[in-house]
């Protein structure tokens, strides 16, 4: 890619279309943050003239206690995307390969580019049909791409934007097959929405063992703090510390730290957000099946829909109804859109628009 193409691809991968009444393009939580988190952030803003705690000690302690880890095993940053960029830059700083499944989170590719590493994409299964989900991933295919030059293997599980996932057994086989010189980035941004479904399991549930396994999570999705930019990186203390040393100083604001701590403590709000999201996802999936439009019923807070035609006019048609959905050209997916789960009213607005917008798409069965 040229620098100009990279810039276009990067810009196209973020942000909702302007002026949309219903934002279903950025995988945001429609239910808002915990009231306790909002109050804590507001209190912290009263001291905005002071620099935040550079080490984010209180937040890291809260995460460590929540996840059953030592403080030294936890780092935080401005969203999991920034932590991914830091981790890839550190681990591939001398070159080598960054390996990921095709159509994985775009930040892996951008991180490899910034590090001067070679980005290796491993093929997946084809698009969804009326009978099955799309973009299935094969562990053996990925392991075959790992060699002496591999520095990083990045796995988004569940995947974004495809919604594809690896089961717990597949993750165990993958981790067991990766050499000890390779750093594994297991990106669990959507794990709250996936637990207990279709064989999915998190790293902590599996008790995975690998000397260079790093797990990334975010407060942007189920915790609904996307606008405050907080993510976490956990793993072996020495490796976490080395990557954390590369970050900018004072990178996580005091308001963000305070909000994240309070959000971790408000488990009831988190439960309501997750349950509301899953109910909306089920409603969307049921209606799309009735329309006969193929899609991947993934384990995140979104669905990936097959159009059988260029996505641009379809995205514009939804925008005409005031509904923002995400085109996926940066992922080489020119005939697909990704639609986030909204509130019940937003879901109904999307479905009402879909009955018109998707009426004549070629993919309909």
Automatic annotation (TrEMBL):
Record region (Disordered): 1-28
Species the sequence originates in: Egicoccus halophilus
Domain Aminotransferase class I/classII large: 21-352
InterPro entries assigned to the protein according to its UniProt record, in alphabetical order: Aminotransferase_I/II_large, HistidinolP_aminotransfase, PyrdxlP-dep_Trfase, PyrdxlP-dep_Trfase_major, PyrdxlP-dep_Trfase_small
Record-level Gene Ontology MF annotations: pyridoxal phosphate binding; transaminase activity
Keyword Transferase assigned: yes
Originating gene: pat
Keyword Transferase assigned: yes
Protein name as catalogued: Putative phenylalanine aminotransferase
Keyword annotations from UniProtKB, A to Z: Aminotransferase, Pyridoxal phosphate, Transferase
């Amino acid at each position: 890619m040229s620098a100009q193409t990279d810039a276009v691809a990067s810009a196209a991968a973020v942000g909702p279309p302007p002026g949309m009444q219903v934002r279903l393009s950025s995988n945001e939580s429609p239910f808002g943050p915990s009231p306790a988190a909002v109050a804590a952030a507001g209190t912290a803003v009263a001291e905005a003239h002071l620099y935040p705690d550079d080490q984010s000690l209180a937040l890291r302690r809260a995460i460590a206690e929540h996840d059953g880890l030592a403080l030294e095993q936890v780092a935080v940053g401005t969203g999991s995307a920034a932590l991914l960029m830091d981790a890839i830059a550190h681990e591939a700083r001398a070159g080598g390969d960054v390996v990921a499944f095709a159509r994985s989170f775009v930040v892996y590719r951008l991180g490899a580019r910034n590090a001067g590493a070679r980005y290796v994409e491993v093929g997946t299964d084809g698009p969804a049909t009326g009978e099955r989900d799309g973009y299935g991933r094969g562990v053996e295919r990925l392991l075959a791409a790992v060699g002496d030059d591999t520095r990083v293997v990045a796995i988004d599980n569940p995947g974004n934007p495809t919604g594809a996932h690896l089961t717990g057994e597949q993750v165990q086989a993958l981790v067991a097959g990766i050499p000890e010189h390779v750093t594994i980035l297991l990106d669990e941004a959507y794990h709250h929405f996936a637990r207990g479904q279709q064989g999915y399991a998190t790293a902590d549930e599996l008790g995975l063992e690998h000397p260079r396994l790093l797990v990334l999570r975010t407060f942007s999705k189920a915790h609904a703090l996307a606008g405050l930019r907080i993510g976490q990186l956990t793993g072996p203390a020495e490796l976490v510390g080395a990557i954390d040393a590369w970050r900018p100083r004072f990178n996580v604001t005091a308001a963000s730290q305070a909000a994240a701590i309070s959000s971790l403590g408000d488990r009831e709000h988190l439960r309501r957000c997750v349950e509301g999201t899953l109910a909306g996802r089920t409603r969307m999936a049921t209606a799309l099946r009735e329309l006969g439009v193929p899609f991947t019923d993934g384990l995140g807070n979104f669905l990936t829909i097959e159009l059988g035609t260029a996505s641009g006019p379809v995205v514009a048609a939804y925008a005409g109804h005031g509904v923002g959905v995400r085109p996926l050209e940066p992922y080489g997916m020119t005939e697909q859109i990704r639609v986030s789960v909204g509130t019940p009213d937003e879901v109904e607005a999307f479905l009402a628009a879909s009955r018109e917008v998707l009426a004549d798409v070629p993919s309909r069965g």
